[in-house]
């Protein structure tokens, strides 16, 4: 099961992030009134305000937030209360320096930024538990509070931890996992380069080494450990809050960051998951040349992933202005229409709550250029006008609240392979390219997909709802996952596997059986040889019927079993004529084995071959520049058409539909304004 969501919004809701501690109290009332007038009914507060509650160790005071929350109650503003553990106070880290995180070379991360703590120092766990208990006791029943946010962006900015407390906890984690050092030595292959451990005291979190490399099997376990540490830290807080909060109040956290099994965290700790969406990041804020893929539209890839954690998620921080810190990031201001477009992007992908970061741009500190809705002078501006415009539309979209996202296929992922990509450059190169290639094909050719994570508790029903699964490069594969994939295919599903499949065990060691290892029964193929494509040779293609098919980055040189159809063969280099794409009937379904990585164009060919490309082609005809998302509920479908460009785009509506904004029936040629969005009901 991917998600265990226990809270859903029952109407489309708009919010913002507010920091009462940043403003003179005389501004609070008019700020709240202006928000309500704009349609903002919920605010998130307090996630960095530990010192306001505990200015000195053990001295608690609630007067400041009591006053603010009373104003919220009076004005009718609803509140999501943050636990303030992302920014431990100066008194805490100076008295208990073991709380501070370290870099791999041992440098201490000092007070002055945020998230400078580690999850494993017992004293930090104790002090966090105490402040959360105090907040729960004091505010658990507060009528204005509708939700709680744990910490802020768990694993953001820093997602590796090298303090002494981490090493101590890592040893415990390994003892629980392996029991004995013999087992650990075996799993980590420590006989290589004479790394054998004879005492647990010799085992550390990764450390600085001459060539910067760390034993890859140790590193894989280390990422598993970091994830477990983060989840435990979250659970420590949610377990406490659950004792105090009113019935119906939800617990969440925000963002989606690496080295963290977000799915497990959601299932074990949260009622609902929220994401922070800043599409400008795709432009490469530190250096324009870093810009990624499809620009702001690229953010839909993250939203696809968020949906896998929690199908009806919220956006805790939706970008409302230019992004920038005083020391880095130089983001452009959203063009007229973009703020609304990005909000619609979130809504189209499943967000029923959208909260802007932040109400007003901060006048002090690191984030003076992280622009909010209002600017420093608080005047009405075009961003506020756009927020109001979005709200007018969001209200009309109320019937869509709780509607599901429709996907033509699913991309399968899992955390072992995700973390192996961090460790393994070969794995990373194909995986990252394929994820992008599949995303681009889905976007440009209007074939929406979901992401499904294979987890310990995954069931056939999680997979069987998709006719086609692409599991791009499961280098690491376990028996249980293989069994599930077999069951999926047996009941009629189509599974597509890419190159580099099945050659590692769960420790990340290479298996000594022919590739694709445990998956060979499914694919019916054998991969006796493989190679990166050579920069000294022209790009590799294959022949796929009458068409050419790209074979970028890596090529598995496959042999097809007798009952396997060869759909494409390589055209070039010393392996011309060798199978590159095969199809194997398995149970009532089939398995396609693509011996290379997925690109925009070969993914398109595969989707077309399987008959699932452009599933809405009989309803709309769209240019590549327009994104299509579809949500559905109670027999109704809503098509979201999103134009990410600065020029108008023409689309053709092939059957009568109702425009949710203007209420009119539309058919035939329809124009989307620059950065415009339309929602059509049918
Ligand atoms: C988010 C974070 C916010 C704010 C914003 C702008 O990642 O949650 O607190 O820092 O970025 O930097």
Question: How do the helices and strands line up, and which of them pair or pack?
Answer:
Elements: E1 13-17, H1 28-38, E2 42-45, H2 50-53, H3 63-75, E3 78-82, H4 90-95, H5 122-139, E4 145-149, H6 164-178, H7 181-187, H8 216-242, E5 250-252, H9 262-269, E6 274-277, H10 299-309, E7 314-319, H11 338-348, E8 353-357, H12 382-396, E9 404-405, E10 409-413, H13 415-423, H14 425-444, E11 449-453, H15 460-464, E12 468-471, H16 479-490, E13 494-497, H17 520-523, E14 525-532, E15 541-544, E16 547-550, E17 554-560, E18 564-570, E19 579-586, E20 589-594, H18 600-609, E21 620-621, E22 626-633, E23 636-643, E24 649-659, E25 665-672, E26 677-681
Parallel strand pairs: 1-2, 1-8, 2-3, 3-4, 4-5, 6-7, 7-8, 10-11, 10-12, 12-13, 13-20
Antiparallel strand pairs: 9-22, 14-17, 15-16, 15-18, 18-19, 19-20, 21-24, 22-23, 23-26, 24-25, 24-26
Helix pairs in contact: 1-3, 5-8, 8-9, 8-13, 11-12, 13-14, 14-18
Written overview of the protein:
With 682 residues, this protein is α/β, with parallel strands linked by helices. The protein folds into three domains: 13-161 and 226-402, Glycosidases (TIM Barrel, Alpha-Beta Barrel); 409-609, 3-Layer(aba) Sandwich (Rossmann fold), CATH 3.40.50; 620-681, Golgi alpha-mannosidase II (Immunoglobulin-like). 30% of the residues lie in helices and 21% in strands. The chain contains 18 helices and 26 strands. The strands form four sheets. It has a nine-stranded mixed beta sheet with strand order 11-10-12-13-20-19-18-15-16. A hairpin with a 2-residue loop joins β15 and β16. The chain is globular and about 80 Å long. The model has no long low-confidence stretch (mean pLDDT 97). The site of beta-D-galactopyranose has 8 residues, from loops.
């Amino acid at each position: 099961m991917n998600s265990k969501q226990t809270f859903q919004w029952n109407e489309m809701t708009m919010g913002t992030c507010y920091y009462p501690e940043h403003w003179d109290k005389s501004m609070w009332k008019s700020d709240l009134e202006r928000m309500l007038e704009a349609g903002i009914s919920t605010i998130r507060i307090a996630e960095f305000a530990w010192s306001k509650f505990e200015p000195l160790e053990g001295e608690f005071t609630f007067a400041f937030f009591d006053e603010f929350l009373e104003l919220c109650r009076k004005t009718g503003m609803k509140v999501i209360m943050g636990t303030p553990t992302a920014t431990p106070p100066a008194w805490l880290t100076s008295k208990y320096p073991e709380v501070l995180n370290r870099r791999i070379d041992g440098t201490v991360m000092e007070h002055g930024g945020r998230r400078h703590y580690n999850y494993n120092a017992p004293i930090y766990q104790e002090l966090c538990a105490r402040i959360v208990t105090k907040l729960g006791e004091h505010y658990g029943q507060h009528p204005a509070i509708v939700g709680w946010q744990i910490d802020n962006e768990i694993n953001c900015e820093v997602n590796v931890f090298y303090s002494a407390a981490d090493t101590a906890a890592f040893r415990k984690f390994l003892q629980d996992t392996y029991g004995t050092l013999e087992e650990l030595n075996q799993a980590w292959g420590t006989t290589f380069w004479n790394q054998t451990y004879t005492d647990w005291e010799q085992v550390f979190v990764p450390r600085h080494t001459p060539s910067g490399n760390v034993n890859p099997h140790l590193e894989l376990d280390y990422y598993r450990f970091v994830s477990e540490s983060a989840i435990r830290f979250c659970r420590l807080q949610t377990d406490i809050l659950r004792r105090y909060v009113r019935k119906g109040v939800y617990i969440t956290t925000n963002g989606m960051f690496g080295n963290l099994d977000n799915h497990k965290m959601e299932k074990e700790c949260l009622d609902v998951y929220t994401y922070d969406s800043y599409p400008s990041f795709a432009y490469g804020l530190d250096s324009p040349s870093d810009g990624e893929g499809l620009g702001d539209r690229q953010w839909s890839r993250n939203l696809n992933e968020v949906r896998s954690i929690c199908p009806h998620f919220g956006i805790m921080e939706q970008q409302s202005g230019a992004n920038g810190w005083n020391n880095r990031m130089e983001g452009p201001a959203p063009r007229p229409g973009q703020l609304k477009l990005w909000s619609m992007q979130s809504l189209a992908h499943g967000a029923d709550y959208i909260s802007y970061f932040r109400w007003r741009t901060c006048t002090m500190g690191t984030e003076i250029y992280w622009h909010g809705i209002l600017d420093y002078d608080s005047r009405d501006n075009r961003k506020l006008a756009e927020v109001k415009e979005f709200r007018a539309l969001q209200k009309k979209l109320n019937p869509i609240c709780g509607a599901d996202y429709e996907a033509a296929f699913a991309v399968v992922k899992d955390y072992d392979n995700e973390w192996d990509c961090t460790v393994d450059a070969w794995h990373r190169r194909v995986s990252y390219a394929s994820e992008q290639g599949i995303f681009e094909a889905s976007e440009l050719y209007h074939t929406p997909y979901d992401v499904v994570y294979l987890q310990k508790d995954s069931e056939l029903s999680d997979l069987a709802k998709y006719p086609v699964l692409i599991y791009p490069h499961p280098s690491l594969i376990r028996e249980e996952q293989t069994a599930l994939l077999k069951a999926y295919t047996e009941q009629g599903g189509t599974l597509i596997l890419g190159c580099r499949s099945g050659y590692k065990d769960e420790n990340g060691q290479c298996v000594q059986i022919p590739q694709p290892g445990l998956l060979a029964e499914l694919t019916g193929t054998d991969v006796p040889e493989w190679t990166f494509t050579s920069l000294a040779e022209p790009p590799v293609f294959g022949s796929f019927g009458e068409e050419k098919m790209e074979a970028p980055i890596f090529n598995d040189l496959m042999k097809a079993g007798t009952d396997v159809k060869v759909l494409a063969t390589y055209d070039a280099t010393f392996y011309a004529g060798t199978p590159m794409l095969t199809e194997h009937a398995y149970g009532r379904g089939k398995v396609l084995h693509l011996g290379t990585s997925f690109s925009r164009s070969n993914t398109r060919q595969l989707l077309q071959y399987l008959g699932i490309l452009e599933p809405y082609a009989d309803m709309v005809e769209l240019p590549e520049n327009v994104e299509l998302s579809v949500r559905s509920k109670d027999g109704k479908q809503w098509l979201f058409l999103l134009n990410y460009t600065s020029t108008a785009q023409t689309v053709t509506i092939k059957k009568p539909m109702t425009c949710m904004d203007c209420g009119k029936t539309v058919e035939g040629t329809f124009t989307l304004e620059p950065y415009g969005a339309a929602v059509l009901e049918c």
